[in-house]
Design goal:
This protein is of the alpha/beta class and 271 residues long. Helix content is 43%, strand content 14%.
Length: 271
């Protein structure tokens, strides 16, 4: 019987930032698809809580305590996954976010502290590169696997207030393409690297700039919605379908792609 190309039953995924709003909903989706999920993050309590939720869905999950900027800790996490499950099939790099001190809203860009810009670039760029290099090594040994990075509209559009974040996400797009080419050429056509580029979703990291204390939208939020053809923010669950697809064999000839999930924001010419 031919295997359903969308079937992910029995595969093993590591999700960095897997207890965040977006990472968490991706973890739930993969667990529902029969994937054994390892939730990786700095907060052991939050990772374990998410792993417990996933066990109720799929019966098998684990928490990994590691900083995405600590290569030794990531290698230890990789060892723990391989010891328990023997393989790593999927990596979703969902860790990241902006740093408040690096925002340029209402201030000259020249006044933004360089250490704050360094921090946000490290978190988003190196925080994706290091996990990829660590976990993809075991995928390369098997000659198969799927890596999904998280880019942003900020990678290709000039969005006010987020210089460092934009620089980092632009680099994520390039890193995604570079790794896709290198891994396919070196290790074969079953090792793929892609990215999704979410539009605007209300999450913990951006709620303060999109939603007022009374629950109404800020001026920035209203501007975003006006520029989004679908006329609304995205719901986190609307990211899950594309992630599940990219992790599956249904996407077996897709690598090096950065796919927008944005309600048409990136397609709109503004006229």
């Amino acid at each position: 019987m031919t295997r359903d190309p969308f079937d992910l039953t029995g595969r093993v995924a590591v999700i960095t930032g897997g207890y965040g709003v977006l990472g968490g909903i991706m973890a739930h989706e993969l667990a529902r698809a029969g994937v054994r999920v390892a939730v990786l993050g700095r907060r052991s309590d939050a990772a374990e809580q998410m792993a417990n939720e996933l066990r109720e869905i799929a019966g098998d999950a684990m928490a990994l305590t590691a900083d995405v900027l600590d290569a030794d800790a990531l290698r230890g996490a990789r060892g723990a996954v391989l010891e328990r499950w023997g393989q790593i099939d999927i990596l979703v790099n969902a860790a990241g976010g902006n740093v408040q001190r690096a925002r340029t809203d209402g201030v000259p860009v020249f006044t933004v502290p360089m250490d704050a810009l360094d921090e946000v670039i490290r978190l988003n760029l190196q925080g994706t590169m290091l996990p990829t290099l660590v976990f993809a090594e075991s995928m390369a040994e098997r000659g198969r696997g799927s890596i999904v990075n998280v880019s942003s509209m900020a990678a290709t559009r000039s969005l006010s207030g987020v210089l460092g974040y934009s620089v980092a996400k632009g680099a994520i797009d390039n890193f995604t393409r570079w790794m896709a080419v290198d891994l396919a050429r070196r290790y074969g056509d079953q090792l793929r690297v892609n990215a999704i580029a979410p539009g605007f979703f209300v999450a913990a990291q951006n709620r303060g700039v999109l939603v007022n204390a009374d629950g109404t939208y800020t001026d920035r939020a209203r501007t975003i919605i006006a520029r989004t053809p679908m006329g609304r923010f995205g719901a986190p669950r609307e990211l899950t379908g594309i992630v599940r697809f990219l992790c599956s064999d249904a996407a077996s000839f897709i690598t090096g792609a950065v796919i927008p999930v944005d309600g048409g924001f990136s397609a709109d010419g503004g006229v």
